[in-house]
Design a protein that fits this description.
CATH topology of the largest domain: Rossmann fold
Pfam families: Biotin_carb_N, CPSase_L_D2
Largest sheet: 5 strands, parallel
Keywords: ATP-binding, Biotin, Ligase, Nucleotide-binding
Structural class: alpha/beta
Protein name: Putative urea carboxylase
Number of helices: 7
CATH architecture of the largest domain: 3-Layer(aba) Sandwich
Strand order of the largest sheet: 3-2-1-4-5
Distance between the termini: 43 Å
CATH class of the largest domain: Alpha Beta
Number of strands: 7
GO molecular function, one term: ATP binding
Organism: Cryoendolithus antarcticus
Length: 172
């Protein structure tokens, strides 16, 4: 933790407050970002520094370029995404590293692999992680989905991936 002196939390609300609390225990300076709608939120008042995001309330927390710009202006050593928003954005994770900061989250390659459901399932299976019964790979038609569902037993859950016509099926 000696290397990380200042941390930007690229999130809001309770998750940001928890990260701020932990960072303070580790003597790490915190920078919160916020939109106009969040000006009175705890993550804004609890951080050592809070910076208003440009853009709208709807787009502010997902504007990776603006967040990295703020991080540079605040001399941030690391960015933590919390969950949601940019936590599953491999390009943003790479951009943080490219900007010379530490990304506190999964490696971009892991984000990409686990963002594709059938690839994530195969990786989990190869790692020995218990998984619910399901198809090997994708089903490619309605009839294939029905056939695979009948083999697995009902109820089933269809999980969309890559395209709206490709699904993995998991028995519940």
């Amino acid at each position: 933790m000696e290397r990380i002196k200042t941390l930007l939390i690229a999130n809001r609300g309770e998750i940001a407050v928890r990260i701020i609390r932990t960072a303070k225990r580790l003597n790490v300076r915190t920078v919160s970002i916020y939109t106009a709608a969040d000006v009175a939120s705890l993550h804004v008042s609890h951080a050592d520094e809070a910076v208003l995001l440009p853009g709208t309330n709807a787009s502010g927390y997902t504007d990776g370029d603006a967040i990295i710009k703020i991080a540079k202006e605040q001399h941030v050593d690391a960015i933590i995404p919390g969950y949601g928003f940019l936590s599953e954005n491999a390009d943003f994770a790479r951009s943080v590293g490219d900007a010379g900061m530490v990304w506190i989250g999964p490696r971009p390659e892991a984000i990409e692999a686990f963002g594709v459901k059938h690839v994530a399932r195969d990786l989990a299976e190869k790692a020995g992680v218990p998984i619910v019964p399901g198809t090997k790979g994708l089903v490619d038609s309605e009839q294939d989905a029905v056939t695979q569902s009948e083999k697995l037993g009902f109820p089933v859950m269809l999980k969309g991936t890559l395209s709206c016509w490709s699904y993995t099926i998991h028995a519940n």
